[in-house]
Specification:
alpha+beta; seven-stranded mixed sheet; six-stranded antiparallel sheet
């Protein structure tokens, strides 16, 4: 061990213990250990060039606390880390610099790893994975082939977001208001050949599986909405100009069919061009071009103004044979339903707004009261049918049943289930991604392969061929044999996309064209004449690459068996480790990552390759950490100050005047209760808000800088102390000083000025009754709070306990050690150091977790609520016999109450024995 510190030299202490954990492999998970297993997982980061930001340590610290706690409880803990390292930023860096993305990515990973180790996380670094490592993505390719073999992967032309400046396809999430999230370049809809995964085949299973998961309700609701299952009717509207053809609409409100006064088609509908009359052609062409620049979210925004153009064509309403017009409007999406919607303006808000704008008929066919001769229009509820022929007077529910029967008997409609969920576009026109393990051949060679192929090729061939057409020729997809995996990314001369919708791989001629031996599965570059023998065929590789989502769909499995060369996971290890018991990550991944991973996992489960149907049984989202509060002062046109209480969105709500604002420094404002006011004029309230951290706003905070000034333990404690884990919280660098002082006080309680163990720590075997009581309360509170992830209140209780130690003359060594055990998951470096100073062997994380003794808690204790000005600020277990004065003193010393009393005058104290203490301050 290094020379002991006299003072609390946190940088030296933290480096010392980080080195010890690495050399000792303290947090190594042991396969097939006899202890019960516990698998705790973080959503792994993308290693960007900017390094970690201050939000990363929040989730990582939370999982580390749980992992260390479970280890002390006797569990074999698996807490791994890895890198989601494929992605567009690395590719853009390569385009700009000419440096291979792997070089930049490796440098970023090294920086991230170094930063994570500075946080003192108890990670098993032996299990580190990197999605760009061929030993990893070879198995990603293998899993893709399972999807391919089972008919869950196909090729089609899809309208996708194309960014000319970036030269690539972007996902919906990468497009904001018609521009790329990265670079803010314009984007447009463009049809390109895409690999697509048939996730819709699992829509019902993905919905049903949510019921058994311990996930936030909001996350479940988002997935349910994203899948968007609805039961209804497909209705056929005959085209007036084409008697043998019809448009199909999907509806869940067939009872309103008599009120359908127009039809709306999506701008991308394949037969739209056929229906447009010449006099409307230019207007519709311009309209389609504008729609191609809008996101689906923007197009379907209920608040936005509805737009559309008449096609000049008509359909026949099958319920009443009325001729109604066909319009095109961008609020209809080709990706939902049939891309055709019937407009019922009397009973749908969106249709009503559209009909008003374009002077289309609005007729009431539902009423709340049959006796009312003037029914309300529009009416959006359930009611009874009117103006609906033989169905008049029926309730909405009964009418739905009868009209459905009517249409089915006449073959004008059939029951249908519809989903908002679309099949997953699974390809990108980029270089930096997993290559598809596919060779394209012509039809003649494909038939040859079907008859005489190598076993691992034939085993992976789907029943229905996957094809695409190019320049009048059809190509067929062949899987690579498993012996040819991983298919390595080639070196290319340029990372610049072709500009024609193909990735840079299209220019890698020596890699692109190959000869395939259909008997052995061998693939060689196509140089010169095809080798002799009928077993060789000519083909070309797929030039698209997989999206970044691919590697993150299954990484949690690879952590269990990270270096296996024979399987993506050993079945015995999969059965032993199972899936993560706790998964913590950002709420921004509530839908796509979690949904995609669930899909892949279910496919592998149904193929008998996994033993569980779901990947993540318990998910928790840490809240966003915002930048430090920003203060703004407002003035009107005459230069008069306007108090923020009269302002909303920079507008004076009294006059409607748009105000000018200036940013204030912290020293120009002062806190007054729950608000901030101008220091020089306390009558003027200033706006105080925290924003999401971003480089453009200049409010980012580096964890490295915080660690250098306050230490990793202080950073860990402060991020957990800010508030509930799931809550959104503003960062305040000044606030960390409080927990830094707490750690210094811990040090002073244990170590004297000469660097020796404090004389307050006695060798007595008996602890005082009062100290024993507070200790047992603390054991119980910290244990319960870690179990329920209430880390902030656990820290509050430890602060209360430390306050108690500061008031007494001595406490036992047993008490000193127990407190360090409770502190260790939160501030592991100082706990390890003091543990060794007390004469114990490292590591403290190997020592069994303390159990509280209920017999040592005074009977009749109650949980008392502390309020300030009527708002709950803290709570504490105290004796129900405590006097008002004793309770008030407890409150004044509570770390969560102190900030609300500083500089304030107490005007009244209201005490309800055993329940509430309310302190009233000016």
């Amino acid at each position: 061990m290094e020379t002991e510190c006299v003072t609390y030299d946190f940088l030296k202490i933290e480096k010392k213990w980080q080195n010890f954990w690495a050399e000792d492999r303290t947090f190594r998970a042991i396969d097939f250990d006899s202890r019960p297993k516990y698998y705790v997982l973080d959503m792994f980061p993308y290693p960007s060039g900017e390094g970690l930001h201050i939000g990363h340590p929040e989730g990582y610290t939370a999982t580390d606390i749980v992992g260390r706690y479970k280890k002390a409880q006797g569990y074999n803990v698996l807490h791994p880390m890895g890198w989601d390292a494929f992605g567009l930023p690395a590719e853009q860096h390569a385009i700009a610099t000419g440096v291979h993305p792997a070089i930049n990515t490796k440098a970023n990973i090294n920086n991230f790893r170094k930063q994570l180790k500075k946080l003192g996380l108890g990670l098993d670094w032996d299990r580190e994975v990197d999605t760009t490592d061929p030993n990893y993505y070879g198995w990603t390719q293998w899993i893709f082939l399972q999807l391919f073999k089972n008919g869950l992967a196909y090729v089609d032309e899809y309208p996708v977001w194309w960014c000319e400046a970036l030269g690539t396809v972007l996902s919906n999430e990468e497009v904001i208001n018609g521009r790329s999230e990265r670079g803010n370049y314009p984007v447009e809809r463009k049809k390109l050949r895409q690999w697509v995964l048939r996730i819709t085949a699992y829509a019902d299973e993905l919905l049903e599986g949510l019921k058994e998961l311990d996930w936030p309700d909001s996350t479940k609701r988002q997935q349910i909405a994203w899948i968007g299952r609805s039961e209804g009717l497909d209705i056929y509207f005959d085209l007036v100009d084409y008697p043998n053809e019809h448009l199909v609409t999907f509806t869940t409100t067939v009872e309103t069919l008599f009120g359908a006064s127009y039809i709306v088609m999506a701008p991308e509908h394949p037969i739209l061009a056929k229906l447009v009359k010449p006099e409307y052609a230019k207007e519709i062409a311009d309209y389609i071009a504008q729609a191609a620049k809008k996101s689906d979210l923007n197009r379907t925004d209920l608040a936005k103004d509805k737009t559309g153009v008449f096609t000049g064509s008509y359909v026949i309403n099958p319920i009443n044979n009325k001729k109604i017009p066909i319009w095109v409007a961008d609020y209809v999406l080709i990706s939902y339903g049939t891309g055709v919607v019937m407009g019922v303006p009397g009973h749908d808000e969106r249709d009503y707004e559209f009909a008003l704008k374009y002077h289309l008929p609005i007729e009431a066919v539902l009423t709340e009261d049959l006796k009312n001769p003037n029914p309300v229009v529009p009416f959006f509820g359930k009611g009874y049918l009117i103006n609906s022929g033989e169905f008049n007077g029926l309730s909405s529910e009964k009418a739905k049943e009868k009209i459905t029967e009517f249409l089915q008997k006449r073959h004008r409609g059939h029951l249908a289930v519809n989903y908002k969920l679309r099949d997953w576009l699974f390809s990108r026109q980029r270089y930096w991604g997993e290559p598809f393990p596919v060779i394209w051949v012509d039809e003649e060679d494909y038939e040859k392969v079907k008859k005489t192929s190598h076993s691992s090729i034939s085993e992976m061939m789907p029943k229905e061929a996957v094809t695409y057409d190019l320049e009048g020729k059809t190509y067929f997809a062949l899987p690579l044999s498993t012996e040819q995996l991983p298919q390595i990314l080639p070196i290319v001369e340029s990372y610049q996309p072709s500009g024609a919708g193909e990735s840079p791989l299209a220019g890698a001629e020596g890699w692109l064209h190959v000869y395939l031996n259909i008997l052995t599965g061998e693939v060689i570059p196509a140089k010169g004449q095809i080798p002799e023998g009928s077993e060789w065929v000519h083909g070309h590789r797929e030039t698209n690459t997989m999206p970044q989502w691919a590697g993150s769909c299954w990484y949690y499995l690879r952590y269990c068996d990270p270096i296996n060369k024979d399987s993506f996971i050993d079945p015995k290890l999969e059965k032993y480790w199972g899936t993560p018991d706790l998964y913590i990550g950002g709420a921004e991944h509530a839908v796509l990552h979690l949904l995609y991973a669930r899909f892949w996992h279910r496919v592998l489960y149904k193929l008998g390759l996994l033993t569980t149907p779901e990947p993540f049984s318990k998910v928790v989202h840490q809240g966003l950490i915002l930048g430090e509060p920003e203060h703004r002062l407002f003035k009107d046109a005459q230069g008069n100050l306007v108090s923020a209480e009269f302002i909303k969105d920079d507008v004076d709500i009294r006059s409607g005047e748009v105000l000018e604002s200036t940013k204030l420094d912290d020293n120009e404002v002062v806190k007054k209760g729950e608000i901030f006011v101008l220091k020089d004029n306390p009558a003027i309230q200033v706006e105080s808000r925290s924003f999401k951290m971003s480089k453009s706003r200049g409010n980012t905070v580096s964890p490295d800088a915080i660690i250098e000034e306050y230490g990793a333990d202080a950073l860990r404690l402060y991020e957990m102390f800010l508030g509930p884990l799931e809550a959104m919280k503003p960062w305040n660098t000044k606030g960390i000083e409080g927990v830094a002082r707490f750690l210094k006080r811990v040090w002073r309680e244990y170590i004297d000025e000469e660097g020796k163990v404090s004389s307050k720590i006695s060798d007595s075997l008996e602890e005082s009754l009062e100290t024993e009581k507070v200790l047992q309360e603390t054991i119980k509170k910290v244990t319960d709070d870690i179990e329920s992830l209430r880390f902030n209140t656990a820290i509050s209780q430890m602060m209360i306990f430390l306050n108690h130690l500061g008031k007494i003359n001595s406490f036992t060594k047993r008490t000193a050690k127990t407190f360090l055990q409770l502190l260790a998951p939160f501030a592991p470096h100082i706990a390890e150091e003091l543990w060794v100073r007390l004469g114990e062997k490292p590591s403290i994380s190997n020592v069994p977790w303390p159990k509280y003794d209920p017999s040592k808690l005074v009977q009749g204790d109650v949980n008392l609520i502390f309020q300030v000005n009527g708002k709950m600020r803290a709570e504490k277990v105290i004796s129900k016999n405590a006097t008002k004065e004793e309770v008030l003193n407890y409150a004044k010393e509570h770390p969560r109450i102190i900030p609300y009393l500083e500089g304030k005058e107490i005007t009244n104290v209201i005490y309800v024995p055993g329940k509430i203490l309310n302190i009233v301050v000016k």
